[in-house]
């Protein structure tokens, strides 16, 4: 019998989904890292489990931090597990690779970040080749049992979510590019007379800090 794997963003949401589905899909057995019955396997991330990184052959740590080595723009991005949640990632990937699991449901939070969390897990699980299993999107605005059941009756297609997924991935890569290049540029500038004065820059961090400074100066 084939099953559908439901991946939530956090354990509490996975539990809510199980409670909502039990009356219509049957009782779930609880395991260490997932719930399971005859139709569904329900598991969860704990926020981000995977992050992007520059490919190994494009090591951004090499060379002096100077304007001569900027900008740093990798030809593509690899994926790596988030160290503190690697065990959880392995558990989710194990479920995704099961032969009896023939479909995935992205039940991460409704929004850009939830879309990214799931997509990176799916890509990481596939490795060099795509995982090759159809994906549906559970889009929840309420966590009541009836709202969850209604969401399962109106699952969105992967094609419907493609735009949001692209926006999420672009934001992630933009954060990396601005952080690496901005930090190196500002550090090189502030260290131009000698020494090493690390000056971090972030796509959100820096303008937010600027607003705080402007407010303080008033």
Summarize the structure.
This protein is α/β, with parallel strands linked by helices. It has a single domain (3-217), classed as Rossmann fold, CATH 3.40.50.
Plain-language structure description:
The strands form two sheets. The chain has a seven-stranded mixed β-sheet with strand order 2-3-4-1-7-8-9, with helices on both faces. A two-stranded antiparallel ribbon has the order 5-6. The protein has a single domain (3-217), classed as Rossmann fold, CATH 3.40.50. The model has no long low-confidence stretch (mean pLDDT 94). A hairpin with a 3-residue loop joins strand 3 and strand 4. The N and C termini lie far apart (67 Å). Helix 1 packs across helix 4, helix 2 (86-96) crosses helix 3 (112-126) and helix 3 (112-126) crosses helix 5. It is of the alpha/beta class and 218 residues long. It has helices spanning 11-25, 86-96, 112-126, 145-153, 162-190, 205-217; strands spanning 3-8, 29-30, 35-36, 40-44, 50-53, 78-81, 101-107, 135-137, 156-157.
């Amino acid at each position: 019998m084939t099953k559908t794997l439901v991946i939530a963003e956090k354990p509490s949401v996975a539990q809510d989904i199980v409670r909502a589905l039990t009356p219509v899909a049957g009782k779930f057995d609880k395991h260490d890292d997932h719930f399971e019955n005859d139709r569904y396997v329900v598991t969860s991330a704990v926020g981000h489990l995977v992050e992007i990184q520059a490919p190994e052959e494009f090591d951004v740590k090499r060379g002096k931090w100077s304007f001569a080595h900027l900008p740093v723009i990798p030809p593509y991005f690899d994926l790596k597990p988030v160290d503190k949640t690697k065990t959880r990632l392995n558990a989710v990937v194990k479920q995704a690779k099961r032969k009896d699991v023939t479909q995935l449901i992205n039940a991460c939070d409704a929004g850009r970040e939830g879309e990214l969390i799931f997509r990176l897990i799916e890509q990481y699980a596939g490795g060099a080749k795509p995982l090759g299993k159809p994906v549906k999107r559970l889009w929840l605005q309420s966590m009541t049992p009836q709202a969850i059941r209604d969401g399962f009756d109106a699952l969105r297609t992967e094609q419907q979510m493609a735009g949001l997924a692209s926006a999420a991935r672009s934001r992630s890569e933009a954060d990396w590019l601005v952080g690496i290049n901005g930090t190196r540029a500002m550090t090189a500038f502030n260290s131009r007379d000698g020494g090493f004065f690390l000056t971090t820059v972030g796509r959100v961090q820096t303008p937010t800090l600027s607003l705080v400074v402007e407010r303080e100066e008033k």
